[in-house]
Specification:
- The complex is a heterodimer of chains A (153) and B (550).
- With 153 residues, chain A is an alpha+beta fold.
- Chain A folds into 2 domains: 57 residues, Arc Repressor Mutant, subunit A; 77 residues, 3-Layer(aba) Sandwich (Glutaredoxin), CATH 3.40.30.10.
- Helices cover 45% and strands 12% of the residues of chain A.
- Chain A is built from 7 helices and 4 strands.
- A 4-stranded mixed beta sheet of chain A has the order 2-1-3-4, covered by helices on one side.
- In chain A, α1 packs antiparallel against α2 and α6 packs across α7.
- The two termini of chain A are 24 Å apart.
- The relative contact order of chain A is 0.13.
- Chain B is globular and about 75 Å long.
- In chain B, the strands form 4 sheets. Chain B has a 5-stranded mixed beta sheet. A 4-stranded mixed beta sheet of chain B has the order 2-1-3-4, with helices on one face.
- In chain B, α12 links the parallel β8 and β9.
- With 550 residues, chain B is an alpha/beta fold.
- Chain B has 4 domains: 120 residues, Glutaredoxin, CATH 3.40.30.10; 203 residues, Rossmann fold (3-Layer(aba) Sandwich); 84 residues, Roll (Ubiquitin-like (UB roll)), CATH 3.10.20.600; 94 residues, NADH-ubiquinone oxidoreductase 51kDa subunit, iron-sulphur binding domain (de novo design (two linked rop proteins)), CATH 1.20.1440.
- Classes of the chains: A alpha+beta (153), B alpha/beta (550).
- Chains A and B meet through α2, α4 and α5 of A and α2, β11, β15 and α18 of B.
């Protein structure tokens, strides 16, 4: 599990040991902590929470919040909710795709960025927006994207 | 803080809070709602805290939930007087503080009418606010969501006190039934009847649930309420549990809003500490616990049976509802689920009575409705108006009309499962039944303006694209029907429409709507149906030599 936050993950698993009903809670916390769910971690979750591995996989692969592959250091998100869409999110998305070379859901080879789209984050009044690692950049235009992304290494 | 053992202790504590507060002392409320936060209101709040700290406690600073006028964020409101400052930057902070100390106003930061240049200083003069009736969201600028004492100071938990001490559970239920409170999540189903079903279900273990999933695109009022005033929703939930006889509650909300999670967790912990949750609440003998649960990123988990499966720890697949969830829900126990805004209405109904509540609104839709106003509108934000208010008031008086001087083409309600109506229906009143008849049901209350440049075929394609990704895939009509409709619409937007496409779309819309298991599939063709009703020529024009040229 090199590169993963092992102590944090173990602490989460221990917190829910023996509680099959807390499967989603455990996976959400691990996802937030580690940004993805490695297979061996899901095996440990299955053992500790006493649920079949198949059920862990069912939950992990069903819900969109879970990632089964490693993510980049920075998560770049373009809101494609309805207001952002009406206010030009598609152009913003195209610009991010052009600058990062990534399509929706992809991570670059250097693990710098993971690019995702999604709806709706509820900041409609300042759409379209770019969100990097949870920080919102409102009233974004394609011209301003490069300057924002440059801040992240 | 020692646990409050009785109603008398709570009221004594409330009196102490109020005695310590001087209403004449200036207070600066900085909005930290989702939009203001996105415009870095945190930096503004930090500057206020630093600069006000130098003034030796002469001015109080409060970080609050959403004020409503998201378009003009970061928002700052100064009390007394409710002086509104808009688009405030950290550099403006010293000037605002200096003016506030002198009882003056910083003219350059107040509202200016874009057409006449007329200024509006106080909240009740600002056009965006003055046409509203802010019963639910109006407290937001007065409350730091992390402080239960702020909620108590505005009369919070007084409704719970009244219910526990002066009313039997049946009387609480009767009051909500008489108030004709209808579910704010989309269905408009009477909350009282739903409560009664759960109450009368034979099982002893019963649950109550706050649906704060808010997956509807461009609807953002529930999270504004839950983030900005979590105790109001919790108070409504506890009262509901008392009426229904539920021992446990669940708050189900989004996992992707850190501030929301922080505020709700904190509110639950504080309520527990104060003795408003847990065993023997305020010495009444009533026990109630509440747990927080998260949706992990799929739209269908807002559907009630799917949501309950998710709370159990399973994938959120809806089930057929020949037995309602109010009879057999979480772990097959009777489970009453209401939307955030529905629960938020409960305390005021108990405090002020059903008669007062039914005096607001239209004939069959009572009370106020929170509306998320966005799209091509000048003033985007969260709006609260009495039911029955004409859409014109929402769009023009409050919303300020269409952006960039363009013409209004359509009004869209209800997100991806809603509908669009043409601009000439703008005098229709905001009403559950009336809007449904027009083909644009209110849904949760996301209202979008679309300007003259909007391509209605593209919009239908966009909405279906969203739903195709959010379908759980359990039933075939939804899983297979929507992609087929999307395929045709995508071709039409790319200039590849064929004769017969419209007929095929109508066919698919009918079957998908009739045969799908849950509301997601059933209502997925609704936007398309509304467009066929009002904007069909635009669709016909995409069919070369076909039905358009007939």
């Amino acid at each position: 599990m090199s590169g993963n936050n092992i102590d944090g993950i173990i602490a989460i698993i221990e917190k829910y040991r023996g509680q099959p009903g807390s499967l989603i809670h455990a996976l959400v916390e691990i996802q937030h902590e580690n940004h993805w769910l490695p297979r061996e971690v899901m095996h440990q979750v299955a053992d500790a929470l006493e649920v079949p591995f198949a059920q862990v996989m069912q939950i992990a692969s069903f819900y969109k919040a879970f990632s089964l592959t490693p993510k980049g250091r920075h998560e770049v998100h373009v809101c494609t909710g309805m207001t952002c869409h009406l206010r030009g999110a598609a152009k913003l998305q195209a610009k991010v795709e052009e600058l990062t070379g990534l399509r929706d859901g992809e991570t670059d080879a250097e693990n710098k960025f993971t690019f995702e789209t999604g709806a709706c984050l509820g900041s409609c009044s300042i759409g379209p927006e770019l969100i990097v690692d949870g920080k919102h950049y409102g009233r974004m235009t394609p011209e301003k994207v490069e300057a924002v992304l440059k801040q992240y290494e | 803080m020692p646990k409050l053992q009785s109603v008398a202790e709570l009221e004594k504590y409330r009196a102490e809070i109020l005695a310590q507060r001087d209403p004449a002392k200036p207070c600066i409320a900085v909005c930290a709602g989702a939009a203001c936060d996105g415009m870095d209101s945190a930096a503004v709040a930090a500057a206020f805290v630093t600069e006000a700290g130098k003034l030796g406690g002469k001015i109080e600073v409060r970080t609050t939930g959403c004020h409503g006028y998201c378009e003009k964020g970061p928002n700052v409101v100064v009390t007394p007087g409710d002086i509104c400052y808009f688009e405030v930057q950290p550099a403006d902070v010293p000037e605002i503080l200096a003016a506030t100390l002198k009882g003056e106003v910083v003219e350059r930061l107040v509202y200016k009418d874009p057409n006449t240049g007329a200024k509006a200083v106080h909240m009740h003069e600002v056009p965006f606010y003055k046409h509203q009736t802010r019963l639910l969201i109006g407290d937001n600028p007065k409350i730091d969501p992390m402080r239960i004492d702020d909620y108590l100071a505005v009369g919070g938990y007084a409704a719970l006190v009244k219910a526990l001490t002066e009313m039997k559970p049946d009387q609480v239920l009767d009051e909500v039934k008489k108030a004709n409170l209808r579910g704010r999540g989309g269905g408009g189903f009477p909350a009282g009847s739903k409560w009664e079903t759960t109450k009368n279900a034979p099982e002893k273990t019963k649950y109550v649930i706050v649906n704060g999933h808010e997956g509807e695109s461009a609807a953002f009022m529930d999270r504004a309420m839950l983030t900005g005033n979590p105790h109001k929703i919790l108070e409504g939930l506890i009262i509901g549990a008392y009426a229904i006889g539920a021992q446990k509650g669940f708050m189900y909300t989004r996992h992707d809003m850190p501030l929301l999670e922080k505020h709700v967790r904190n509110a639950l912990a504080q309520a527990k500490e104060y003795g408003l949750l847990g065993q023997n609440i305020l010495g009444s003998g009533f026990d109630f616990e509440c747990e927080l649960h998260f949706d992990v990123g799929i739209f269908v988990s807002g559907e009630s049976s799917a949501l309950m499966r998710s709370i159990e720890g399973n994938p959120p697949e809806p089930r057929p509802k020949y037995i309602r969830t109010s009879v057999s829900g979480i772990w097959d126990k009777p489970s009453n689920l209401n939307n955030v805004e529905t629960w938020a209405n409960v305390p005021q109904i108990i405090t002020k009575g059903a008669e007062w509540f039914t005096s607001i609104g239209s004939e069959k839709s009572k009370g106020t409705k929170l509306i998320s106003l966005s799209g091509n509108v000048v003033n985007s934000g969260i709006v609260e108006v009495p039911m029955g208010t004409p859409l014109r008031t929402l769009v023009f008086d409050i919303g300020g009309g269409v952006r960039d001087g363009k013409t209004l083409k359509a009004i869209h309600f209800g997100g991806a499962m809603g509908g669009s109506i043409p601009a000439d229906l703008i005098d229709a009143p905001l009403d559950f039944d009336g809007m449904s008849k027009l083909g644009a049901p209110i849904g949760a209350g996301g209202l979008l303006l679309m300007d003259e440049d909007t391509d209605m075929v593209e919009i239908a394609r966009y909405l279906l694209d969203f739903l195709v990704n959010e379908s759980c895939g359990k039933c075939a009509p939804c899983r297979e029907g929507m992609p087929q409709m999307l395929h045709i619409l995508t071709n039409m937007t790319q200039g590849k429409g064929k004769p017969g496409d419209l007929e095929r779309l109508e066919d698919l819309a009918e079957v998908t709507g009739a045969a799908s298991l849950c509301a997601l599939g059933k209502t997925s063709p609704d936007p398309l149906k509304s467009m066929f009703r009002y904007f069909k020529p635009e669709y016909e024009a995409r069919i070369p030599g076909g039905s358009g040229d007939k």
